[in-house]
Amino acid sequence: MRKIDEIIVHCAATPEGKDYTVAQIDRWHKERGFDGIGYHYVIYRDGSVHKGRSEERQGAHCVGHNAHSIGVCYIGGCAADGKTPKDTRTAAQRQSLERLVRELLAKYPGATVHGHNEFAAKACPSFNVKRWAAEAGLKTK
Questions:
Q1: Confidence (pLDDT) at 23
Q2: Which of 11, 62, 73, 124 is catalytic?
Q3: Is 116 a catalytic residue?
Q4: What is the pLDDT of residues 57-109, one digit of tens each?
Q5: For residue 4, what are the contacts with CB-CB under 8 A and spacing of at least 6?
């Protein structure tokens, strides 16, 4: 079993108000040369949580951190133009993200929560994960 010490939150960088699926993300990632979807979980706009890559497999979501992290992605993250970063999480996504991260922290004691933008020059996940986690009482350090 992999040693997990980070849970990294991502957005799909898709336009607000539009639905996308794990199958679509899997196809996009394969087109980029990955061996399938790089995220372990994807949260749809309705708040449903879908499995991507198995937790036992190393992710393909954050260079330099994949070997020891779990990648969680929510659908959205861009304004309607599909380019401008924007926190587009629905109320259902917010609830599901917090619940999933709590479950992962319980499963992987000692893990910390991060936004992708802490490790890459990107806006992803289009909100301040450290602030969100602190407000939710989640472990960030």
A1: 98
A2: 124
A3: yes
A4: 999 999 999 999 999 999 999 999 999 999 999 999 999 999 999 999 999 99
A5: 55, 68, 69, 70, 104, 108, 111
Query: Does the annotation count 124 as an active-site position?
Result: yes
CA count, 13 A, side-chain hemisphere, 95: 7
Q: Which residue out of 11, 39, 61, 73 is catalytically annotated? A: 39
Query: Cα dihedral angle (66, 71, 76, 82), rounded to 10 degrees?
Result: 0
Active site residue 10: yes
**Neighbouring C-beta atoms of residue 2, cutoff 10 Å:** 15
Catalytic residue among 50, 68, 122, 139: 122
Which listed residue (10, 61, 86, 114) is catalytic?
10
Give 16-49 pLDDT, tens digit per residue: 999 999 999 999 999 999 999 999 999 999 999 9
